[in-house]
Amino acid sequence: MDMLAGKVKRTEATINTMATRPDAHTAPDRPIRINAEDVTVHYGAKQALFGISIEIPDRAVTSFIGPSGCGKSTFLRCINRMNDTIEGAKVGGTITLDGENIYDPSLDVVELRARIGMVFQKPNPFPKSIYENVAYGPKIHGLARNKADLDEIVISSLKKAGLFEEVKDRLNEPGTGLSGGQQQRLCIARAIAVGPEVILMDEPCSALDPIATAIIEELIDELRENYTIVIVTHSMQQAARVSQKTAFFHLGKLIEVGPTSDIFTNPVHKQTQDYIMGRIG
Amino acid sequence: MTDTPRVATLTSAERTRLIHSGLRRRHLSEQVFKGLGLAAIILALGFVALLFADVLRKGVPAFVQSNLHLAVTYDPAIIAVEPAPIREAGQSDADFRAVSLKWQRDVALLNWNKVVEASLRAAAPVGFEIDSKQILTTAETDARHRIRELFVADPTLLGKTVEVEVLASANAANWIKGNIDRSLPDTQQQLSAPARALIDQFTANGTISSGFAWSILGNVDSRAAPAAAGLAGAFVGSLFMMLIVVVLAVPIGVASAIYLEEFAPKSRLTDFIEVNINNLAAVPSIVFGLLGAAVFINYFHLPLSAPIVGGLVLTLMTLPTIIIATRGALLGVSPALRQAALGMGASKTQMVFHHVLPVTLPSILTATILGVAHALGETAPLLLIGMKAFVASVPATPFDQATALPVQIYLWQGNENRNFFEPRTAAAIMVLLALMITLNGFAIYLRSRLEKRA
């Protein structure tokens, strides 16, 4: 109970700090990392996305909000080409990462996904040990020269994900035995271990309780120092808390995009306003 | 809709009454269904119990054999043969072998039945009246071979008397076990009156004793000496075939399933292949036997009656089972695991071999072992590739002639010496079932072990 109380306190404190950080809710003047132009997605005959164009700034949190089925997750999955794995999905338009078209046939999707990590809605650690979970990425990409190297990567990734203290004595136990929130942080550690430039998060807190959610949000806020983060979220409060830039999707279209503070306090479009006021969604 | 839905106009009491009136019927139908299910299970278990009880009742006595303890005298008067050749200085291997073989032929041509008869007479009470033919029916016909082989192995036995244990004849064993009606008149008895009396004497004075029937497990099939007929040849034949099935069907089946499920583009062709694999699983096994005879024997000229052909045919038969089971297991892997792997930048092959395959391994292994166990019990296709031939040797390689356990059961079941081979058949069924249960147990063990690890 004490531990829980401590976490809650810490979380409240964090939210307060987050709110007071000068750039917390405005898009700072960061260079553009990812540029999407006129992206469309078809699932078979059904069109899911209509001409999405958006710029995603470096080392900031960009959030995608919108009602269920609005296409925000679909667009997120375009950024690391996870839609390739879906039968019958067709992506049009261009998305560039540092000016390089990620849909260029000469680009290797394996390499792309090493540069753009992903955290999924439901925590999905591998049914292996905690250590193996984090070590997997560096292993397959050949990032560690030896065991000591790998140990270091695992420990530093777990530390960055704020999980190390909780699991340091049971690194060889299965990752699936952790609590939901810990599993999700393990998945974040796993993504970080490869040293990605961008981390995509697809509703990372939707399966978690409020305390675990607060811890993850705190973590996201820390991570934006070093990573470009794109987060899809169902919760407008979460978008408001963690992101600097917000994009509102509705029915497969990007309705409005801008600094988070503007979107939430002064939306231009009526649909955005309705959604934020809870009238649609 | 202009009508108000009926449910909205009901009062709370009316609604409760309506729900209540249907409740009894709903509960009743559940009770009926549960009862039917339970009855079905009891019926099925009852039949299984009946089968096992019947097999055990018939088979267990066959694991007891009657041994004759004889004092065999290698009488020089009967064994009139030159001394065994001794290797001379300067004699080549081939020459010595030729001389030795000639001597062994000479030994084989002697009338060893006389030695057997003399030994039996020595064991019989003094003055017991019985003729040569009758007295020999008490010992199994392979007794003379046993006694001769001892002599060939050690020619210095000439003139000596040694204790030898031979099998009592099948009829004698039946007489002792009470499988023959003692009240039948002489004309209907297979053993003559003096022979029957002598067997009783032997049993009384300990010349004949009962012991565990190692002959069933250790001997090869025999027609001339039914009491000595065993399963060794069939067992090794089955083992060879099982080995071939495991070595061929498992990798091919698992690899095809992985390719079809994970890599093959979904197209008309793969649909067609899938339908055909499912159909193949339903093809009667005897058709696979025909195919084996036509392709492996007639076209590739593989030997008849050989476990290699049997193994290949059973492999073809088991493949669809393994492919279907493996595909089912792969299909059951959660998409979250696949996405996790792909999201980490694993290639498709890495995703399959690092993540998907390990979690499906328990089900694949179980399905495989059950498929192999099924193949082990298959009889029909083996009949068509000549494996029902009478083979009285243990195959040394899969290319030698052999038979298989289920075929041996079929052959014994058809043996004309009914009251001896009926228990023998049940005993063979017990051995086959024991092998099956062992395999199934192994599958269960592997499954629980691997699942614990995952």
Question: What do you see in this structure?
Answer:
The complex is a heterodimer of chains A (281) and B (454). With 281 residues, chain A is an alpha/beta fold. Chain A has helices at residues 2-20, 72-79, 109-115, 130-140, 147-160, 164-167, 180-192, 210-223, 236-242, 260-265, 270-276; strands at 32-43, 46-57, 61-65, 89-97, 100-101, 116-119, 198-202, 228-232, 245-250, 253-259. Chain A has a single domain, classed as Rossmann fold (3-Layer(aba) Sandwich). In chain A, the strands form two sheets. Chain A has a six-stranded mixed β-sheet with strand order 6-7-8-3-9-10, sandwiched between helices. A four-stranded antiparallel β-sheet of chain A has the order 2-1-4-5, with helices on one face. In chain A, helix 4 packs across helix 5 (147-160). The longest helix of chain B has 48 residues, at 12-59. The mean pLDDT of chain B is 90. Chain B has 454 residues and is mainly alpha-helical. Chain B starts with 5 loop residues before the first helix and ends with a helix. Chain B is elongated and about 115 Å long. Chain B has two domains: 61-212, no CATH class; 232-453, MetI-like (MetI-like fold, Orthogonal Bundle), CATH 1.10.3720.10. Chain A binds chain B through residues 80, 82, 85, 87, 110-114, 117-118, 120, 122, 124-127, 136-137, 140-141, 187, 190-191, 194, and chain B through 266, 334, 336-347, 350, 354-355, 358-359, 454.
